[in-house]
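A favour, since you know our structure tokens better than I do. Just paste the record in under my message, thanks.
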Amino acid sequence: MGDRAIRHGRLSAVTAALCALVLLLPVPAQAWGFYTHEKTAEIAEANVSPQVRAKIRRLMRAEKMLGTPECDLATIEDASVWPDCVRRTRWRWGYTAAWHYRTTPICEAYNPRANCSGGNCVTAQIERNHRILADESLPDHIRLEALAFMVHFAGDIHMPLHSGDKNDRGGNDRETDYGIVPSLNLHWIWDGPLAERAISDPADPVVRRYSPAERADLGGGAPTDWGRESWAISRDFIYPTAFDTDNVCGQELPGKTALSQDDIVRGVPIAKRRVQQAGIRIAELLESAFAPGPLLEPERQ
């Protein structure tokens, strides 16, 4: 075989590998990819009481009353992705788009009440839907819809770039190479391939019953606290790492960058912990919504 044929064969192999990797990545319209959202729901389901699981199953019987046959809502895993599914029907659900995030500039002081006019942000909607779910006087299908929104948005708020921003729509406008995969964007990477890599180690599964000590470490707080955590991760790790600088606020960042393999490896435990925290906190939200006790107090916007 000649040198040209050998080079062509190697190039074809590399091209095929790149294509395969790209095909494995989630669709960019999905917030915190479907796979990751479903894992947060599975963690939550494994860490709620049998009584709460039974109440969730009973609510699921109202699925048909929602009128969304194109988007299943028969399991808690379905609930975790249902809000992303229905918003594809923009004429009916487009008004919910702003509910999936609440970005705060990483170079300004964190303000838990900014960018949430009329309660149209993720923190307010977690609180609102928690309250609706807890209200047993409401019809089951209304409470079921609230359950899906609450479960999904509690996942979204733990994805750091749904809270941190540097004039780039939470990293959506930053073209970023992911290892050898070119031309994704920073937001999409943390939504999909990085999070999925972080929770896909069969030797250390994230879906399991957590010990009381683990739940105490991972859980607690209110939606504004969770948003602050995500914002801080964006400020202290994601942007400095992506742009190889400790001075992200003292300069204009380029529109294109790349994550090295070392960057990805260092990001994996951070992404994994956020998924685990989301799952445990969703479990706490479900327990408090279905059991007598104090409700989340809504923030005044």
